[in-house]
Amino acid sequence: DAMVIQNPRYQVTQFGKPVTLSCSQTLNHNVMYWYQQKSSQAPKLLFHYYDKDFNNEADTPDNFQSRRPNTSFCFLDIRSPGLGDAAMYLCATSREGNSNQPQHFGDGTRLSIL
Amino acid sequence: AQKITQTQPGMFVQEKEAVTLDCTYDTSDPSYGLFWYKQPSSGEMIFLIYQGSYDQQNATEGRYSLNFQKARKSANLVISASQLGDSAMYFCAMRVSHGNQFYFGTGTSLTVIP
Question: What confidence tens digit (pLDDT) does each residue in A65-91 have?
């Protein structure tokens, strides 16, 4: 089945130690998104890619970076994680532009900071 | 600007009963799509149902239906014959025709009581 896969499902890192979360998709969608979601809150968009075009949200901290080396893969890099970065990170994909296209989500990576 | 409002932080429903989760939206774009997602405690976001702004009929998907009232800008999710497995967070989201961004409501936590 075509899908969105996030690895790892659970990630533990130390305060200040860089961490990378990965996302891959077999849907061949040209839009990929990264969301941060804290407990009992709505997902918060960090950034998204339309093909190679990177779109950063204005309030996304500089600590968060992303790479999309090809259509299938997208990475979230947290350069110096703080305690406040502990959250669920959701990757999603969609077809571009048309309002009838839903997002398809991965199972998420739950990040803990020690 | 686009906005989604979910005014029910938490809802309870008896097993086998129907429940309505409220969602109102605001946009000046005449072409948009409305989506409902379910998020169980395990964290994955599951796409449930879609309604297009030009759709004449309310969307249905199995036990899920959407009560779409365009003049009132509401798109309420109706779950019939509730099951224990329906206990989860439910998010309403909107996408407009000219963009790739999705706008999420704050979510409703549904608990199904045996």
Answer: 999 999 999 999 999 999 999 999 999
